Amino acid sequence: MKINQSVKDERRLTVALEGRLDSDTAPQLQETLDSALEGVTILELDFEKLEYVSSAGLRLILSTQKRMDAQGGEMKIKHVSQGIKEILDITGFTGILKFE
Question: What contacts 19, CB < 8 A, 6 or more positions away?
Answer without folding.
Answer: 1, 2, 25, 49, 50, 51, 52
